[in-house]
Amino acid sequence: ETLKARAVLSEVLFDDVRDEQHQREVDLDARHDQKHGWAALHAAAASGVAEVVMCLLRAGANPTLRDDHDRPPYYLADTKNAKAIRNAFRTYRAEYPEQWDWTAAEVPEPLTEELKDKKRDREREKKRRQRERKKVEKAAERQRQEEASRAAAVAEKAAERERKAREEAEAADRVCHSCGGGIVGTPFTRLEFRYCSTGCVQMHKRELMAEAALRRAAR
Question: Domain of life here (predicted)?
Fold first, then answer.
């Protein structure tokens, strides 16, 4: 569509429409496309060149003219530059509100300087909100990272305490219950006690028996 539009525009020599003499020679509303029934303004809108649209409008091209598919030029502004094309129509309508039947041309409200200012204000406000949202998101992410770091530190300390407790428990299992010395190799056991030698086993046995006798005598 864009290539076709530019071909149509080349036929009407749109580069020269600013020249008054040429305007008298060229019928800007003539149909130059047999497939769609486009006039120059249709082709300009479809081509995506806003400057050409404005030039043709100022030269007197009719924005209410419809092609063979009953579409006014404004309807064809669907290229990647559509926003600029539509703004050109709306700006021209603001400058010349009585020149054409803009309702028939399907051109929406005129784009006045006041509306442009409001639009710029909305865009600035939108960007401001986006910046604020990014700040909030960054702050939230920073807080999540800090909380994750604190949680990791707490978990690390808990793991360290558990490791030390396990080491202490393991060390306690290697202490003789009689002499208190370290147990080397396989410990000797009696009941729930561990010993480093058979001598300690017998000594602790006598101590336990003596303690039991004292408890019986005290009753």
Answer: Eukaryota
